[in-house]
Amino acid sequence: MAISASGAQVASSSKTTTTSNAQDTSLIVADSIKNQTDTTGAVDSTSLTDTTRNHLKETQGQDTVMMEDDSGLETMVTIVANDSSWNEVSKNMLHLYNGAKVKYQDFELAADYIRLDRNTNQLFASGVTDHNGKYVGRPVVIFPGESPKSVDSLMYDYKSREGNTYGIMTEEDGAYVQARVVRKNLYDELSLQTGMYSTCNLPYPHTHFGIQFTKGLLAKNHIIVGPAFLVVENIPIKFVAIPFGFFPKNNKRSSGLLFPSFGEDATRGFSIRDMGWYLAFNDYWDSEIRGSLYSKGAWEGSVRTNYLVNYKYSGGFNIRYASTPSGVEGTENYGVNRDFNVTWNHTQRQEANPGTSFSASVNFGTSSYFRNTGFNQQNSIEDLTRNNMSSSIAYGKVFADGKVNFTANLSHRQDMASGQVDLELPSFSLNVSTFNPFDSKDRVGDQKWYQRITVGYSLQGRNTISTTDSLLFKKEALNDFTNGFQHNIPISLSLNAFKYFQFNTSINYTERWYLQSVRKRLINEVNGFSAMRDTVRGFERAYDYSMSAGLSTKVYGMYPKMGKVEAIRHVITPSINLNYRPDFSDPTYGFYRDFVNDNGVVERYSIFEGGIFGGPGAGRSMGIGFSVDNNIEAKVRNNNDTTGNEAFRKVKILQGLTFSGNYNFQADSLKLSTISFSGRTSLFKEKINLNFNGTFDPYTYNKETGQRIDRFAIQDGDLARLTNFGLSFDYSLNPNANKSRNDNLDSLRNQMPNMTAEQADALARISTDPNAFVDFNIPWNLNGSFSMNYNKSWNSAERRMMNTVTATVNVNGDFNVTPKWKVQFNTGYDLRQKALSLTRFSIYRDLHCWDMSIGWTPFGQYQSYNITIRAKASILQDLKLTKRESHYRY
């Protein structure tokens, strides 16, 4: 509420000018001048002769004088006026116009009109009324140790450093304090008269919410106000008033209460959500403890902590626990679901410890946590629709000038539907860069063929367990861990052959170390014999090796010009290799054993069956492997180009269309493997990325058992059988939306140099949550994705081949109804289930210094709606009015 002082405005036409172009500042401190420099080239002003000629300067100029402060030390006063200055000698006053500036010690003042009264040592500053009748050029003042403030006008005694400010607006911790009159004293305290505290940065809060007070005192560590009352939509609510108020004002984070939200849930009853306490330990880490209570017995609790050490590392973790009753109390189906969820993120700056890296991204808990706690302010749509959770903690170290690389990783993957949990605690790898053992550092000339031989080495270790989340923390689970080590030594040689071909040959040796192996036996039971599989503890060593040699080349083809298509280039990369591997199931190796199964049939099995890195393969293999890769691009004439710089544009028609397979001469039957293919392309100027893959089976199958038989499908009139096929694509019809989102994120970060870890985490969520950020500058946005998978397999129940097709479509986007109204939507459709996935609509209204949002989930398990009105200022984020209705089905 900015109210100008009466008579403070100065009309621009009231200025009096003369024809001289010099400044005279000598009279400003005539009694204490020690030294003065006339920067305008006028006659030495110390003589004080004919000062009426030194009144005006039509161009930008600067003058300085030296004066004594209270301690007797010399202080420089700088005076600048872009338009003109007028020295009123009779009254000992100096008038400055248009972009005038005065700097005295730590005090700075800029305005379109400044009057300096040398008799009283007072400055008066105000704006001027331009030819359109607008008040422009308001004073901007900088007091020592404070940020710039814009005011309507001010009076300031530069000797006593006291004065009155009229129509001031200042920002305090994200909110705005406006006052009719403000007086500053020597103790840097501000006395306020007739003011308003609000979240709006306009000269007058035209709508919404504010607190009006009659008197106040703004000090360094606290704010004291007199009688205060609410003002909503310009309507004073004086019956909701306080006689006085005292508000601590800390310059650092401090602990305090976290205000809750209220609502009602159809299953859990009335609720008080997210009430808690914020703990500010120091500048490096803080924490918040929150809890939620429901009238029907459910409750939730969470502990969230963030930490940050500048230029070293940052991160945070969140531990959440929920207790949710289900069923009807007193009946057999009544029970209590106890769920938890733990997240941890850690990032290390590379420059903090060169050569060493450490990162963590952890998300684990019970699979039913998000389902039982439902959609709320902490659970996003992505949380409710995800099918799995995963975690990773990684450490890396580089040795020997980058030639040796060690990495260790702890990982976790959890299926939300089945509750299956896979853990690796830990896995590690040690890799040595390939080197040329027969090459010499003192070699002169080209390498000989044997000097091109390269050797590498890698070591891997894993310790894993696969179980369910209900059995994970039980003692019996410790016996289910499996572990092992694998060494790999590749030796290769690459040469140019026959001018157009690349010759490659390699020998690969692999050795595995296990601490357990498998034995199979028969046990005699009442109903007969049954097979038993035992795990034998003890060290076992398994090794294998293979050899291969092959040729590859590139074939280029050009197709003739067709219409706007100037040229089409087709690049074919065929390769063929001969590979050999011995039969490691031979008894001499000791890797395989025989036993008679319960049907009396001799069965050969590997003692490393189920091992982490597998075991040596059975059966000798000598065959030919082949692959063909295709890449097709077109050069199209660009009719929209008028400069000639981009007369043609490149269009990617087909990228990486690859077919591959293998033919084994040593196999008794089914010598030809399945033919795999994959490819990708982009459409509509790369707005749509399309990927596909699949498998062809060249053999037919037994119509009675579904097993493959040694008969080519082409003999029955089919080239091959398509056993599986996958297709997926995603698109964005307005790619400027993602660019705008990233630009806005950068802008927000630049405006918050003292951003806390919690604020940084909130900004990070904007990039993933479509409801977390609303950009009214983008009129519309539409994103979508489609995925389809086809699989053909034998159905033993119906004794025939069955086709299984799954397909899903997901769409999200937004559009502006008006410049202040926006609608967002997120939905999807399962074509197989013929049902919509989680669908949500959101409506946003920009209320300048407030936000209003309406969220609606019309159907499904999380059917609900909510209405939120929230202040934009960070200090008043908990000041919101919310109406929420939810329906959870368990």
Automatic annotation (TrEMBL):
Gene Ontology CC: one annotated term: cell outer membrane
Q: Which InterPro entries match?
A: LptD, LptD_2
Domain (LPS-assembly protein LptD central) ranges: 223-699
Q: Where is the composition biased (Polar residues)?
A: 1-11
State the residue spans of region: Disordered.
1-22
Its name, as the record gives it, is: LPS-assembly protein LptD
What organism does the record attribute this protein to?
Sphingobacterium phlebotomi
